[in-house]
Design a protein that fits this description.
CATH topology of the domain at 263-334: Leucine-rich Repeat Variant
Strand order of the largest sheet: 1-2
Radius of gyration: 35 Å
Protein name: Transcriptional regulator
Keywords: DNA-binding
Organism: Streptomyces flaveus
CATH architecture of the domain at 263-334: Alpha Horseshoe
InterPro entries: ARM-like (IPR011989), ARM-type_fold (IPR016024), DNA-bd_dom_put_sf (IPR009061), MerR-type_HTH_dom (IPR000551), MerR_fam (IPR047057), PBS_lyase_HEAT (IPR004155)
Oligomer: single chain
Number of strands: 2
CATH class of the domain at 263-334: Mainly Alpha
Shape: elongated
Distance between the termini: 109 Å
GO molecular function, one term: DNA binding
Helix content: 55-70%
Number of helices: 19
Order of helices and strands: HHEEHHHHHHHHHHHHHHHHH
Length: 334
């Protein structure tokens, strides 16, 4: 079969067939009396083998080795191809993500595009100082890809950089709120904590609503951060979680401060005092927790808290009684 017929039947151009021959990858078995290349059935099978291996991403040199080396191990080459393909997909995915983030920043011109690229590169820097400078750069001048900011804040381990990233995210609007809420479901505890810390600094009703939802999160750390923030925002839904924190001795000082802020409303103050007294009376509440609950009554105004402290000043637990008596003295001195 002559080269033109082979090209027509195989779909491989005559030029490519000559290229294969020049590389020694395959040669026609014979020549006609006029000197034209003549391909046998075995030659055509080799052409199809070459094309099949090319479809897997092998280079022509690798194909030659695969077809001609008797000791060649296909599994090793396939494993290498898998690795190369994964690396290529990862690189292409990273590029696609970067392009989408630049597009989401809605650049007005090439200057904005270049600034966004520089910003993304700085966020991914190995230098903490560089990442921090990027976060502190004016969001009014640089088109900030919010998704990139969220990703950066969720992975950041340096406290100062993380603080700068949270500040930048809070200034960028509420576009990152939903993404941060997704971070609350991460299988990594540290990521969940960074997500709720960032939500706590986000302004607006949507962030508050997400923090309310976080009160039901199975992670006690997430619940605690959400409750303290909601307490400072005057959301009474946080009261049960704040009291749980005091009982557990987990960030109990901040929890008590949040309760005192909520207690600025008289009705809420009585509800808080009643809940604290109920926990004090609980049989399973241990002595150190009862002392912390008694201390939490200190900044709760109203008669309910005062009456509770009077009763507690005669408590069978000496530490509780002394704490209550001291707090009563302070209330009387006001």
């Amino acid at each position: 079969m002559l080269i033109g017929e082979v090209a027509r039947r195989s779909g491989v151009s005559a030029r490519m067939l000559r290229h294969y021959e020049s590389l020694g990858l395959m040669r026609p078995s014979g020549r006609t009396g006029s000197g034209y290349r003549e391909y046998s059935g075995e030659d055509i099978r080799r052409i199809f083998h070459i094309e099949s291996l090319r479809s897997l991403g092998l280079s022509l040199r690798e194909i030659g080795r695969a077809l001609d080396d008797p000791g060649f191990t296909p599994s090793a080459l396939v494993d290498d191809l898998i690795r190369q393909t994964r690396d290529r997909i990862a690189a292409e995915t990273e590029l696609l993500t970067r392009l989408r983030r630049i597009d989401a920043a809605d650049p007005a011109g090439w200057e904005d595009v270049l600034q966004a690229v520089a910003f993304l590169q700085a966020l991914g820097s190995q230098s903490a100082a560089t990442r921090q400078r990027a976060a502190l750069s004016s969001v009014d001048e640089v088109p900030v890809p919010v998704e990139a900011l969220v990703e950066a804040v969720l992975r950041e381990t340096e406290p100062n950089v993380a603080g700068a990233l949270r500040w930048a995210l809070a200034r960028s609007g509420d576009g990152g709120t939903a993404l941060l809420a997704e971070g609350l479901g991460s299988p990594v505890a540290a990521v969940r904590e960074r997500a709720v810390q960032s939500l706590a600094e986000m302004p607006g009703d949507e962030a508050t609503a997400r923090l309310r939802d976080a009160l039901a999160n199975p992670d006690v750390v997430v619940r605690g951060h959400a409750a303290v923030t909601l307490g400072t925002r005057g959301i009474a839904d946080a009261v049960p979680t704040l009291i749980d924190m005091i009982v557990a001795g987990r960030n109990d000082t901040d929890a008590a401060d949040a309760l005192s802020m909520l207690a600025s409303d008289a009705t809420t103050a009585d509800q808080i005092a009643t809940r604290l007294v109920d926990r004090l009376a609980h049989d399973t509440t241990e002595a150190p927790a009862r002392v912390r609950l008694t201390q939490a009554l200190a900044d709760i105004p109203g008669s309910t808290a005062s009456c509770a402290l009077v009763e507690l000043s005669h408590d069978g637990n000496r530490a509780v009684a002394l704490t209550a008596a001291y707090l009563l003295q302070l209330r009387d001195a006001r």
